[in-house]
Amino acid sequence: MELDPEEDLYERVSWDFWKSYKNQDGSIDDSFTMRKAIYFATIDPTLRKEIWPFLLRVYPWASTFEQREIIRNDIFIEYQKIKKQSYSRMKNALKTSWINIENAIIKDVIRTDRCKPYFAGDNNPNIDTMKNILLNYAFAYPEISYIQGMSDLLAPLLSTIHDESDTYWCFVGLMQQQTLFVCTPIDGRNLMEINLNYLRELLKLFVPDFFMHIASLGSDALELMFVHRWILLCYKREFPETITMHIWEACWSHYRTSYFHLFIAVAIISIYGNDVIEQCLPNDEILLYFSSLAMHLDGTIILKK
């Protein structure tokens, strides 16, 4: 397997490495090298709370300690305004659509990551916090509202950052990364279809035999239904959490490409797709085959691929 020449040149971003890139005022001039290190080697889990707001564009890399404190205070106040307005609407909710949104959020959050200690147990306040963030987001961004899958993307943010306001703004930053969050059309564009078009071209280039097999099955197979969950949840249900967080951070780093998640899909198919070709699997069995690989994929090899 041919590896990237820069593979293994970087170690996981540690507190010492992070501090060494900070100026005395807290600003970071060389964000490119920092993002490159994150892309290749990920972040010490104890550092995520500090670095994720940069990756999710809550704070500019060049901002100082003082500037970030001002930003944090300003967006905290803004979030309180959103909460107040959202609460007022819910209190006086007459529209069936708003009641349906709230019910959909409640239905999803009570099932999200309940096996994780942060969300486990009855009457867990973190479940309520997750619900509140999603309700407030739906209120603030009615053109997107709430879409199934958002709770899966929010949960790791909340369990890492803990603070409701800070998590909300990181979530907003994640939703604004349109190459990653593709559940809904924005500005008339179907972002999922755009991603699938790019992926088809990548498969033609890097895994031509697999693409030829898919194409031979007809237009339904070219919809690539087996990758939809990968893209929608950014592989959260395909890998253990350590690998998933590496993939997320590599995507958020935007080093080399804003479509790293599609190259992960190509890597999975290039490694595991031969069985599909050799067994001449039909479309429905291809979906079952790749679904059966969830939590059994070799994330280390896939990331290096």
From TrEMBL:
InterPro entries, per database record: Rab-GAP-TBC_dom (IPR000195), Rab-GAP_TBC_sf (IPR035969)
Keyword Oxidoreductase included in the entry's annotation: no
Pfam families: RabGAP-TBC
A GO MF label: GTPase activator activity
Record key words, sorted: GTPase activation
SUPFAM superfamilies on file: Ypt/Rab-GAP domain of gyp1p
Domain Rab-GAP TBC, first and last residues per copy: 42-255
GO cellular component terms attached to this protein's record: early endosome
Superkingdom of the source species: Eukaryota
Protein name: TBC1 domain family member 16
High-level lineage: Eukaryota, Metazoa, Ecdysozoa, Nematoda, Chromadorea
